[in-house]
Amino acid sequence: MPKRVYLGTRDLLFRSKLGAVVVAAGAEVAREEAGCDLAVLELGAPDAIGRIGGLLEKGIPVLAYGSHVRADLLRAAREAGAVAVPNSEVERRLLGFLNT
Asked: Which helix (H) or strand (E) segment is 21 a member of?
């Protein structure tokens, strides 16, 4: 059964780009967080840090990404338990998650 990845991003072009990475790795994009194997969250959303904790409590690993100039958000996401990377690294890290 292919891995299911939830993409929590407001930027439709970036979502499409990440979705292509998911599909190319043989996984599928999930429409909902429930039942997914990985959640990818954009840190620009106001509730992103809170969502990380909720997902981790359900046993869903989180890959969070955001602007490199928002080190405070990246740090907060890491402290909440997510793997947090700048936008420039999210595709590579997503592919790494999917290939394990």
From this structure: helix 12-24
Angle of helix 71-80 relative to helix 48-57, nearest 10 degrees, comes to: 20
CA atoms within 13 A on the CB side of 69: 0
- Facing residues of 2 across strands? none
CB 6 within 8 A of CB 97: no
Span 13-38, pLDDT tens digits: 989 999 999 999 999 999 999 889 99
For 53-93, give the secondary structure using H, E and C.
HHHHHCCCCEEEEECCCCHHHHHHHHHHCCEEEEHHHHHHH
Q: In terms of pTM, does the model score above 0.90? A: yes
Count the domains in the chain.
1
Structural domain containing residue 48: 4-98
Domain CATH for 42: 3.40.50.2300
Q: Give the pLDDT score at 39.
A: 97
